[in-house]
């Protein structure tokens, strides 16, 4: 029995020797320590947990937070715990910066911890916002500290709405501080950090009824009561009058029509809408229609009037006829024209006068004396003629 006990003792001593000298396996040692998070900031009276991650010679890593020894470069600014269960927890003491270090097996790693001034107040912007239902608003929380410095705390505060049935506000990552208007009413939007909070008012507007659009009441077609000859054209215009008394040119959107296309047609083609063409004699109505509303204008197409033939001179009568007279007498002759329409006209001053035998009697063409004949000393018969264009008339004058 004593021999067995001695053998056990020898084996234990040999095992300890092997473990101490590293015999029987390769040695792995700690190379570096990384402290995280890197360069955080807290305020006095709050804490920040740190983690120490060791990297070993075989490139493996291990959480050595509880195995490391923690220290602060300035315990007046921040302290760090080595107590069991709270290893690596730093506490802010006053404003400033301290280096937090984790040490194990002669290897150290560190990061900076900033202790910010004490938060005094929080302002929430925008202030007193008014939104429509369904709209969103991004809010910002700005902290003011004991040293009068400010900081955007939008991502670290807790957001709340006093009436979530009216408006909700998000605390989810990526949408922190984003408010959504739900229903009409008023709510208070609050941002809280610890015991400090700030708020602002929000009004969600009731839904606004859509504006009542003016309704088309009537359509007037111009020009009204037009008269055209066959083959003539006319551009028509349709003007709409609405329930608010406004007017609008609807020529390009109405449907145009004619009550009798055999008399007049009207176009609905692009570029010529409302363009009417007179086809044959008669009366039609030109219509412009949009929906159930229409307007019209009267159009008369005139019948074809045959051309009036020109009135021409047919004959000329010269008076007095077949006159007998003596020597040295003056006789005023008159020329009366008969025209193709049966009318007559005195053309004495228009005609050209002549005597067939001037030695018996002469006749004047002078202004003021036209048609005035004078007998000479010779006796005989002469023919007195009045000519206008190609038409002549004559009579005889006897001088016995």
List the helices and strands and how they pair.
Layout (H helix, E strand, L loop, with lengths): L1 H20 L8 E7 L4 E2 L4 E3 L1 E6 L4 E3 L5 E4 L5 E3 L8 E4 L3 E9 L2 E9 L3 E7 L3 E4 L3 E3 L1 E6 L4 E3 L5 E4 L5 E3 L8 E4 L3 E9 L2 E10 L10 E7 L3 E4 L3 E3 L1 E6 L4 E3 L5 E4 L5 E3 L8 E4 L3 E9 L2 E10 L10 E7 L3 E2 L5 E3 L1 E6 L4 E3 L5 E4 L5 E3 L8 E4 L4 E9 L2 E9 L1
Parallel strand pairs: 2-10, 12-20, 22-30, 32-40
Antiparallel strand pairs: 1-4, 3-8, 4-5, 6-9, 7-8, 9-10, 11-14, 13-18, 14-15, 16-19, 17-18, 19-20, 21-24, 23-28, 24-25, 26-29, 27-28, 29-30, 31-34, 33-38, 34-35, 36-39, 37-38, 39-40
Please, could you describe this protein's structure?
With 400 residues, this protein is mainly beta. The protein folds into 4 domains: 30-115, Sandwich (Immunoglobulin-like); 119-205, Immunoglobulin-like (Sandwich); 216-302, Immunoglobulin-like, CATH 2.60.40; 313-399, Immunoglobulin-like. The protein is 5% helix and 52% strand. The protein is built from 1 helix and 40 strands. The strands form 12 sheets. Strands 2-10-9-6 form a 4-stranded mixed beta sheet, with no helix packed on it. The protein has a 4-stranded mixed beta sheet with strand order 12-20-19-16, with no helix packed on it. The chain has a 4-stranded mixed beta sheet with strand order 22-30-29-26, with no helix packed on it. The protein starts with a helix and ends with a strand. 23% of the residues are buried.
Descriptive terms for the model:
mainly beta, 400 residues, 4 domains, Immunoglobulin-like, 4-stranded mixed sheet, rod-shaped
